[in-house]
Amino acid sequence: MIALKEVRKEYLQPNGERLRVLENITFEIAEGMFSSLLGPSGCGKSTILNLIAKLDRHTSGDILVNGNKIGFVFQQPRLLNWRTVTDNVALPLERDNSDKRGRRELAVKYLDLVGLSGFENYYPLQLSGGMQQRVAIARALVIDPDILLMDEPFSGLDEFTARKLRQELIRIWRETGKTIVFVTHSISEAVFLSEQILIVSQKPATIFKRVTVDVPYPREYGDLRLFEIETSLTRDFLEMNSER
Ligand SMILES: Nc1ncnc2c1ncn2[C@@H]1O[C@H](COP(=O)(O)OP(=O)(O)O)[C@@H](O)[C@H]1O
Ligand SMILES: [Mg+2]
């Protein structure tokens, strides 16, 4: 579904110098998979997502993405505060020539999927941060994307809300079968959510390691197997940092 081969990315900085952010990124993601990109702040995770979404261009290497429709969820919900929740979710559909009623119906369906039935006519600022992020997830799903890209979507939330939303995300993923690429700097979050974790090194980034989390869903917080994988990933990070 997604394949990156020897991808390199350099940014031109305001002083005219080039900053190499991605050195050599190679990985593959199969259709329907839940994968995470895990790495420290500033290592280039968002850059990788932006390249997959074709929001930016890579410097060299190959990027293959099977699927034209991509849903994106950011760290901040990025809602329009003067529009109702339903009208926010329906927004990406307005590019099509669909009728307003059809758009509303779809929006309401996806609001239900993210657990927001009854809040259709609320405005974003009347909702909690976690609920706003649910709206953002519904907005990303309403176009029925082939791929859902999520850039630290829960890192602005308190841990209790984040835990709840992670469980909900897994339910939604299993109900919809979407291919999800999830970016995080949290080891425990990556382990809880993912089938595969791609560990991104400090910039200029490479994929330091690919780890499979072979634990069935739905997963429980505090599962010993998850904890063991977390511990071994923590060791990987120590090793990775001592190599540089
Ligand atoms: N448009 C840009 N122009 C110049 N430098 C950028 C740009 N976007 C990101 N960078 C730099 O690239 C590096 C990686 O950024 P980013 O992909 O956002 O990392 P992460 O998401 O892992 O925190 C950072 O050093 C950042 O300052
Ligand atoms: Mg980022």
General form: globular
Q: Compounds present?
A: adenosine-5'-diphosphate, magnesium ion
Helix content: 25-40%
The total count of helices amounts to 7
**The level-1 CATH class of the domain at 1-68 and 185-244:** Alpha Beta
Order of helices and strands: EEEHEEHHHEHEHEEH
Number of DSSP strand runs:
9
- pLDDT under 50 segments (min length 5)? none
Largest sheet: 9 strands, mixed
Mean pLDDT figure: 96
- Specify Rg, calculated over alpha carbons: 18 Å
**Ends apart, CA distance between termini:** 32 Å
User: How do the strands line up in the largest sheet?
Assistant: 4-1-2-9-8-3-7-6-5
The secondary structure category is alpha/beta
Tell me the β content: 25-35%
CATH topology of the domain at 1-68 and 185-244: Rossmann fold
Looking at the overall shape, the CATH architecture of the domain at 1-68 and 185-244 is: 3-Layer(aba) Sandwich
Fourth-tier CATH superfamily name of the domain at 1-68 and 185-244: P-loop containing nucleotide triphosphate hydrolases
